[in-house]
Amino acid sequence: MTVKEIFETMEYGPAPEDDGPAQAWLDRHGRRFGVFIGGTFQAPGKTFATRNPARGTELAQVTQGTEADIEAAVTAARRAQPAWARLGGQGWARVLYAIARLLQKHSRLFAVLETLDNGKPIRESRDIDIPLAQRHFYYHAGMAALMEDELPDRVPVGVCGQIVPWNFPLLMLAWKIAPALAMGNTVVLKPAEWTPLTALLFAEICGEAGVPPGVVNIVTGDGATGAALVSHPGVDKIAFTGSTDVGREIRRATAGTGKALTLELGGKSPYVVFEDADLDSAVEGLVDAIWFNQGQVCCAGSRLLVQEGIAEAFYAKLRARMATLRIGDPLDKCIDVGAMVDPAHCAKVAEMVAGSNGEVHQPGTVPAEGAFYPPTLITGLEPADPLMRDEIFGPVLVATTFRTPAEAVEVANATRYGLAATLWSENINRALDIAPKLAAGVVWVNATNLFDAAAGFGGVRESGFGREGGWEGLRAYTKQAAPPKALVPVAAIPAPAAPKPGGLDRTAKMYIGGKQARPDSGYSRPVWSPKGVLLGHAPEGSRKDIRNAVEAATGAASWGRTTGHLRAQILYYVAENLSARTEEFATRIAEMTGSRVPRAEAEVSAAIDRLFTYAAWADKYDGAVKPVPIRGVALAMPEPVGVIGAFAPDDAPLLGAVSILGAALAMGNRLVLVPSEPFPLAATDLYQVLDTSDVPAGVVNIVTGAHEALAKPLASHLGVDAVWSFSGADISTTIEAEAAGNLKRTWVNHGRARDWMQVDARSFLAQATETKTIWVPYGA
Ligand code: NDP
Fold it and tell me: What is the pLDDT of residues 705-750, one digit of tens each?
């Protein structure tokens, strides 16, 4: 090409990055890697090839980690953990800082190796992946230094099993390892089969950074290696990033084991463009939203929603911009779109698009060799089309239109996922009105795909649970300092051989949608006092009662939009009305449980205090403004979880129920409460208190019955967003396993006791909220 021609076309010339140093590093290792355990690379075992997807060439042979490797890695991590924990915050900070420095020093090597292994453009690995990974280690070096002062009652979880996908191999490693080490944990990490190389380079620099042997262990391999890590009994926590299907399997596999679990899963994130948006900026944002990393991004803005009036104009601009995207060798610094991670994945995306019923637009040509797929826009699809609903995980944008803001919200939220959402509008009122209405863990206003270590990232619904980044991510790598005691189950009082005459028969009902309701089963069970007096009957709840209660709770969604001030007033009112009936409740508890009246009075008094505490918190559990390094801020907004199903404890039948109710309602949730199984009447007596305290119908629903029988219907119900259990019955495993259906959050006791007189309000409030991170432009 002549200079004149270049001036005429303004085409970029090639600007290839030298991959020599990365190839030399591979050569130094003989292009064969063993697993990294206890601070050293082991001799390679059975290996598989990892390839450059842009050229199809083999880069190295990597070991397929076996169960024995996982065993050795977990043992090394366990052995190293106490000494690492003793090092303390300042000690961890120094090591994390050293890692960050070394990542910076070797950043080009990491970037080139990442691009070779994954196929992503060097521009992205060099300017985004590696700098963000460094930032994560710097940030968490700071967290480690602050941890002892800021989280004095928390200690490390122990050994963390961490599993990451192939789309951001080093960045996902950083998201996992930095917070774990910053809180005194040790780790066993399994990189993705297609992209293990930067994790192995990271292992190498761990020694240089002074990471003690056994603190970081890297076991390469496929899904079977991951499954072995998940099921290893020596692992205290699993942190997983990957597909929703595998996340669901992991939820089931860890059910009942007591392992802590965080899941960052897939998405089908909406990208909403209002007619008052800056269309050129929105088009540029869309390039980042869906063609960054070839669309292989969990939070990719893969579902475009454009307001009808501007749709054609917007599509025209988008098509014009698509025509200028440069596709090709990812090591070329001018390239916008590189190779897909693997030919198999590329073929899967191609197959999905080939079956499309819409209008497919694919400008430009892709290189003949290598796993390349062109940027794609599909319009004209029905809302129910699989391509509109399912994650494609490639450079494929599906588009539809909407007419009103309300319709935009409805269409945006019509998905089983809830990872991220983007909205574009020059109208600040509109943007700030819509952001809270989007069901997503992260919302970007007039920007997209912004990430930072200080800002929590994670999803709701089937996009998983837990946050990575910020204080919210950090807490997930800690546990409470004092281990809880084992729960002593409380049995119901059996029917006496010779019942004593009681007063009038009092058969309680359920409380559903603000009304008392008979059980669907038509059965109830007697509640006896230890003295042999029949105190009343409690209904035997069933699946249908749970269904009705969840429906009522679903219908009361407006509770989540009330102000904290209003919710506080109502909780104070409940407390006031309970206080007026202290004697009646204390007598009831004493009769049911056989405890002495002063003790029962103390429980009622504590229940009133608890309501006051949560009323106080209702407008004080505030969010945060995260100082992210952009021209903007990230707001961390606590939002209600939604519908919470909860099993109350037996050892404090009123106080336990009220503690759950207070926390859930204070944060704007609706509740389906199953009271203590042996002592249900303390909760059924609450109906009148609730009726006279302005609690709206459907916000609290109470279904009595056998916990074992109700655990499955409540935990598997798709309308329930979280399940808590403080039950004396052994239902933790059932709840965790059944919750896998819609990946709802769970908080269960695993047979551990709790002192209900001393409840840590903050842990309840954290369970009663989801943190939504909203990125907004702000300042200069
Ligand atoms: P997978 O879920 O298939 O794999 C993720 C990781 O889990 C890999 O290391 C994989 O090993 C391993 N794995 C596979 N099966 C099992 C198992 N049964 N038990 C334990 N580990 C297992 O996802 P992909 O690697 O295909 O990544 C793409 C998916 O990840 C997308 O759906 C995307 O949305 C999601 N993702 C989510 C992110 C988030 O933050 N929410 C971020 C990035 C991706 P192997 O590589 O051998 O298959």
Answer: 999 999 999 999 999 999 999 999 999 999 999 999 999 999 999 9
260-264/237-241 β-pairing: parallel
Q: How far apart are CA 518 and CA 227, in angstroms?
A: 46
Element housing 93 (H / E): helix 67-105
Written as one letter, the residue type at 725 is: S
Hey, what amino acid is at 445? V
Q: How far is the CA of 164 from the centre of ligand 1 (A)?
A: 6
- Locate the ligand 1 atom nearest the alpha carbon of residue 419 and give its number: 41
pLDDT over threshold 90, residue 173: yes
Token pair recorded at residue 567: 């919710």
CB 713 within 8 A of CB 547: yes
Q: Which of 176, 246, 298 to mutate to test the pocket of ligand 1 (most atoms within 8 A of CB)?
A: 246
| Residue among 667, 706, 675, 720 at smallest CA distance from 551 | 720
432/776 Cα distance (integer angstroms): 9
Say if CB 392 and CB 355 are below 8 A apart: no
* Strands 632-640, 624-626: pairing kind: antiparallel
Q: What does the alpha-carbon distance between residue 537 and residue 654 come to, in Å, rounded to a whole number?
A: 17
Q: Which helix (H) or strand (E) holds 376?
A: strand 376-379
d(CA 778, CA 780): 7
3-class SS of residue 161: strand
At 429 the three-state DSSP class reads helix
Instruction: Show the tokens assigned to 721.
Output: 């967003």
Residues framing ligand 1 (Cβ under 6 A): 163-167, 190, 192-194, 222-223, 226-227, 230, 241-243, 246, 249-250, 264-267, 298, 391, 393, 419
Cα(373) to ligand 1 centroid in Å equals 21
pLDDT digits (tens, 9 = 90+) for 571-615: 999 999 999 999 999 999 999 999 999 999 999 999 999 999 999
Structural domains of the chain, with CATH: 28-265+474-478 (3.40.605.10), 270-458 (3.40.309.10), 510-562+639-775 (3.40.605.10)
H or E element at residue 620 = none
CB 177 within 8 A of CB 189: yes
Whole-number pLDDT of residue 780: 57
CA distances from 672 to 394, 654, 725 (A): 40, 16, 12
Cα 562 from chain centroid?
25
List the Cα angle 118/173/250 in 5-degree steps. Answer: 100
pTM for this predicted structure = 0.96
Q: Across the beta sheet with 722-725, what order do the strands follow?
A: 515-517, 510-512, 700-702, 670-674, 643-647, 722-725, 745-748
Determine phi and psi for 444, rounding to 5 degrees.
Answer: -105, 130
Token pair for 6:
């270049």
CA terminus-to-terminus distance, the chain: 42
Sign of CA dihedral 511, 513, 517, 519: negative
